[in-house]
Every structure is written in C-alpha cells, then in structure tokens.
Amino acid sequence: MILNILLMIVSVALIIVCLLQSGKSDGIVNALTGQSSNLFAQQKERGADLVLSRMTVGLAVAFFVLAILIRMG
C-alpha cells in the first residue's frame, strides 16, 4: 500500500521535472533540414539544467525500482 502511494508521488514528480526541462528540438530540426547549427558541439549542462537532468535520472531509477518491488511483492 505504501509502495503504491510512493510510486504515484514519484510518477507525478517525474512528469513535472520532465516538463520543466528545456527543449532540445531545435538541434534535431536543424539537423534534419540541413540548416547550420551547433548540434554536435560539446555543450555541458550547467545550473538549473544540470539539477533537473540529475533529478530526472534519480526519479526514473526510483520509479523503476518501485515498480519492480510492487510487482514482486
């Protein structure tokens, strides 16, 4: 019961964090249309983007672990 509630909280948090991240679709569009872009330039995430990226990975791992634990239990 508590794992189900925790899974719902993690799911909502994961959705919110994913929606807060900045879009990277400009690079894909430029690559497909042949426009000049810096798609392959090595750009590191900094500041809020880095925090949101790490939170996304952490929440995704927590989501899958909880899903497996619920399924096994």
TrEMBL record:
It is found in: Cell membrane. One of its GO terms (biological process) is protein secretion. The chain crosses the membrane at residues 51-70. It is a multi-pass membrane protein. One of its GO terms (cellular component) is plasma membrane. It holds the Pfam family SecG. GO terms for molecular function: protein-transporting ATPase activity. Keywords: Cell membrane, Membrane, Protein transport, Translocation, Transmembrane, Transmembrane helix, Transport. Belongs to the SecG family. NCBIfam families: secG. Involved in protein export. Participates in an early event of protein translocation. This is Protein-export membrane protein SecG. It comes from Coprobacillus cateniformis.
